[in-house]
Amino acid sequence: MDYIAIDFETANSRLTSVCSIGIVGVVNNKIVFEEYHLINPEEEFNESNVMIHNITKDDVLDKDNFAVVWKKIEKHFENTIIFAHNAEFDVGVLKAVIEKYQLKQPNIKFGCTLKIACKLWSKEVLINHKLNTISQYLEIDHHHHHALSDAKICVEIINRGQKIMNVSDVNELYDALGLRYGLYNKDRFFLSLNKYKRNPKQKIIDNELLNDKVIYYAGKPSSLSKKELEDKLLNNGVYLEKNINRSLDYFLILGNCPKLKISLVETLIQKGVPIKIISEEEIIKMIK
Q1: Residue 271: C-alpha distances to residues 166, 180, 264, 267, 275 (Å)
Q2: What average pLDDT does range 203-207 have in this prediction?
């Protein structure tokens, strides 16, 4: 699989109360398999949850618990990327039930279609980024809070995002949107987040040329030190990227810049990525 998209529904407010899962596998931007399982959570059902997904205790009385279902689906979670809408919840559910039944922890890299949607469509376009709102906007049939239907809408969000960003796969999409994958394994668990963070106490100078621009620089400045340059860029609202990728707005060439790095940027530009190459003299003029 290039990736799988998943969705969980729960019987109550506890993450351990899984009552259904939907899974779709994607290769070359097409769904190649679908799976849906009702699951006995071995916990009580809250009326509020039932009203959301319409799964009742009677529906799952004769169904397997998650430990048994996991044996059937575990193979899908190896050597691929997992996507979910609000992945913090769904991967949190997976982690909770893995621990509940003391199962072997998987090694999962995961992304979030909610974060993708928020990057693609502003609140001027969509009043919110819930799956039912997005499916209506995309004019796609959707059964909200049915785990399989929700998982399939995640794929539609990714496919539409690739078209909008003019990229060919989900990794390029995540990169272009300035997002990084989360990770869940036996040693580590962290969420999918924006790649670029800014000190909330930092006072940003109003500069339309540099505010919220992503810059990668290579080489050594001649007119000031690296720290002075970085401080000035950060004060002007720049995000400093540590890698050459599709999310860059500017590639800043300084003295003794390696030719290989220039070549990597030029290759991306040839592929249609709108990166502007600038010099130290140009950036100094742009800085306030």
Answers
A1: 10, 22, 11, 6, 11
A2: 92
